[in-house]
Design goal:
Residues 2-59 form the HTH lysR-type domain. By secondary structure, this protein is an alpha/beta fold. It has 13 helices and twelve strands.
Length: 295
């Protein structure tokens, strides 16, 4: 029988592809990681990883066991969190800010329901605005944001933010669709207004189609979606939202210049507050579901 504790060494090597990096992530020496991994393989009776010039890679058997190990890790983390919650009696409201379209995707998924089940005395309250809310001023507790962020805030990456160019089916029927980015100046385009002139989508459109007169401008991603759906023109949109719209067609992309990372952020003064820490821990534990919502 193997030591359940040895699964964490297997998971660390699987994620970092290096015993040195795995050791650093666990606060242990490389030799400890190697020794425990070898012991786990001996107890199981088959190799889990194989060393390559570029680092450690999982064997086929290791790949098969990985999701099972991750579920065990999640169950242990959940057990520890529940025990801690009972000890600290977590209660209160967590004010979450994120782009308005993302709220709909979150509430339609099982994410919020799972959080409420895990922390029945905590409540999520969404706060939205056309501008970035200031966490340092207490306008919200945590934020899901992509792209450039305030250096004062701290957080964790939770997903990739991918953008592409979309058009309505009606627009394509009437005007066709571009074959490459270079064809964009020959089409009607929609984008952000001057209040979001420095947004990466605005900068990109100016670079690839500087001489085009925009057919519509808006000050929000939601407004951009509506403009494209109405057939006013082509427009860059987050792939997570554009791909979910049955009336829209991805005509170009993903666009590398628009790709960024989604991060969960908080002000340093709040990050270790128990209710905020509980939300961070939950989101990181549910990152696969979070990725499906944001990416």
């Amino acid at each position: 029988m193997f030591d359940w504790n040895d699964l964490k060494y297997f998971l660390a090597v699987a994620r970092h592809h290096s015993t040195i990096a795995a050791g650093k992530s666990l606060g242990l020496s490389q030799s400890t990681v190697q020794r425990r991994l070898v012991e786990l393989e001996r107890a199981i009776g088959q190799p889990l990883v194989k060393r390559h010039p570029s680092g450690y890679r999982l064997t086929k058997f290791g790949e098969e066991l990985l999701p099972h190990a991750e579920r065990i890790e999640a169950a242990v983390t959940d057990f520890e969190r529940r025990a801690k919650d009972e000890a600290h009696d977590l209660t209160g409201v967590i004010r979450v800010t994120c782009p308005e379209p993302i709220i709909g995707r979150m509430t339609k998924s099982a994410l919020i329901e799972r959080f409420q089940t895990r922390h029945p005395k905590l409540r999520i309250e969404f706060v939205t605005s056309d501008r970035y809310l200031d966490l340092s001023k207490g306008e919200a507790d945590v934020a899901f944001r992509s792209g450039d962020t305030d250096d004062e805030l701290i957080g964790r990456k939770v997903a990739d933010s991918i953008w592409a160019v979309y058009a309505s089916r009606g627009y394509i029927e009437q005007y066709g669709k571009p074959a490459t980015v270079n064809d964009l100046p020959n089409h009607q385009l929609v984008g952000f207004d001057e209040t979001l002139s420095m947004h990466r989508a605005s900068v990109w459109l100016r670079n690839v189609a500087s001489d085009v007169k925009m057919s519509a401008r808006t000050n929000s991603v939601l407004g951009l979606i509506y403009a494209v759906k109405s057939g006013l023109g082509l427009g860059p949109l987050p792939a997570s939202l554009g791909d979910a719209e049955p009336d829209l067609v991805r005509v170009l992309g993903p666009i590398p210049e628009l790709s960024r990372s989604w991060r969960l952020l908080a002000h340093p003064d709040l990050r270790q507050v128990p209710r905020i820490a509980a939300f961070f821990d939950f989101i990181l534990a549910e990152r696969e579901l979070v990725k499906s919502i944001l990416s």
